[in-house]
Write a structure and sequence with these properties.
Elements (H helix, E strand, L loop, with lengths): L1 H20 L10 H11 L1 H18 L1 H4 L20 E3 L5 E13 L6 E12 L1 E11 L3 E9 L19 H37 L1 H16 L2 H10 L7 H31 L3 H8 L4 H12 L1 H24 L11 H4 L6 H6 L5 H23 L8
Helix pairs in contact: 2-14, 3-5, 3-14, 5-6, 5-8, 5-11, 6-8, 7-8, 8-11, 9-10, 11-14
């Protein structure tokens, strides 16, 4: 009894000394989730990446409302129109609300070269919540209000220029984000399911099952990724509708992308299946499936989340590359890869460099996912010494 009282007194003295050392400030214990959030917030690049991703997926979700024009609308006389400049000062030097000048095309009678210039005779203001081309929001709500644009029917405004058919490139990029960004999520979820099942079975049971799964993984990983994508994509029937092609490309990307996750999950299972909490659950009568679902998988779920964020860019690049090569989605379906098909010729890029703008969106998306994934990976282990 005396020893217990002495131990309590010593512990109380240590706490009082610690409080005195902190200047009387209270000590607040943080949970694991709070530690993870606090460390994640300290990583500015990760926070920026998360904000950019939220903006991109918000753009994909409300693409009909954000796009100033219908993506398939053709403007006569505006083939390969360069990007329109936004002006805030008039020709006289006075400040004004944002406006643009109409782009006028002229053709050289000798060389037949087309050039565009601004007609400064009339200003066209850029307004918010303007009425324009009709659309069905999410395919359900008929509407005709767009976030920004112009209410002048005699002038078209091309912030990112126009393509070879006189269609607004900005509107097509916004619409293309819905497919290009969603195919990454769908593909990663499918590869997660395959990798989790095969990797878990391989690592938990071992033996013949482990050997078979590992040999299949080695076979898939030994094949170069791009030729494998091209071969599987070329095997899709040419008469398939675009929705079925979209699902086929997702399955192809999932078929290639599950091997890395399966091997890591196998290693986690091999390391954790002999832990005391697993053996105790088995001795208590728990079934293997229950142990895997309730004990093994939750112990490394943070790694799975990090892997998902770092694998999605690979899926997006895969779809973009297949569509760019003509083996994936094709027109009239709109994706960033389909839009980049116009940039296959060096001459077209040299004359109309704005057709490469969809590649910038791919680059920004990949960088945002990498920043976010790296920050999430560091924050998932708040007790490590990495900064």
């Amino acid at each position: 009894m005396a020893a217990q009282e002495m131990g309590r007194a010593e512990a109380k003295a240590e706490v009082e000394a610690k409080v005195e050392e902190l200047g009387g400030r209270s000590i607040r214990l943080l949970t694991h989730r709070q530690l993870v959030l606090r460390r994640f917030r300290k990583n500015r690049l990760a926070v920026v990446g998360l904000v950019v991703l939220i903006a991109l997926y918000g753009m994909a979700l409300f693409c009909e409302f954000l796009a100033p024009y219908d993506p398939n609308r053709r403007f006569q006389g505006n083939v390969h129109t360069p990007p329109s400049r936004i002006h805030f000062r008039t020709a006289e030097g006075a400040w004004s609300m944002p406006f643009f000048y109409k782009m006028v095309r002229t053709t050289d009678p000798k060389t037949f070269e087309r050039t565009y210039g601004e007609d400064t005779g009339r200003r066209y203001p850029i307004r918010l919540f303007v009425r324009g081309d009709k659309y069905d929001l999410w395919g359900l709500i008929p509407w005709d209000v767009h976030l920004f644009g112009t209410d002048s029917p005699d002038a078209a405004w091309f912030l990112f220029g126009a393509d070879a058919m006189g269609r607004d490139l900005l509107s097509r990029i916004i619409y293309g984000s819905r497919i290009s960004l969603s195919i990454g999520l769908v593909g990663v979820i499918a590869s997660l399911i395959i990798g989790l099942i095969l990797g878990g079975v391989s690592g938990y049971y071992g033996g013949v099952v482990d050997n078979i799964v590992q040999r299949v993984i080695e076979l898939i990983r030994s094949i170069p990724t791009v030729p494998l994508w091209m071969g599987l994509a070329a095997a899709l029937p040419s008469n398939w509708p675009q929705l079925r092609v979209y699902l086929g490309i997702t399955i192809i990307l999932s078929f290639v992308g599950w091997t890395t996750l399966a091997r890591v999950i196998r290693g986690k299972f091999l390391a954790l299946r002999e832990e005391d909490f697993v053996l105790a659950a088995l001795q208590a009568g728990a079934r293997p499936l229950f142990v895997i679902r309730e004990h093994l998988v939750p112990s490394f779920v943070s790694y799975i989340l990090v892997h998902l964020t770092l694998a999605i860019p690979g899926m997006i690049i895969g779809e973009t590359g297949l569509s760019f090569l003509g083996l994936g989605l094709v027109a009239p379906t709109i994706s960033w890869g389909v839009l980049l098909k116009d940039a296959q010729k060096v001459q077209a890029v040299a004359l109309h460099p704005w057709i490469l703008i969809p590649a910038l969106f791919v680059l920004v998306t990949v960088m945002a996912f990498n920043f976010f994934g790296d920050g999430l990976r560091d924050a998932a282990d708040p007790y490590s010494q990495r900064t």
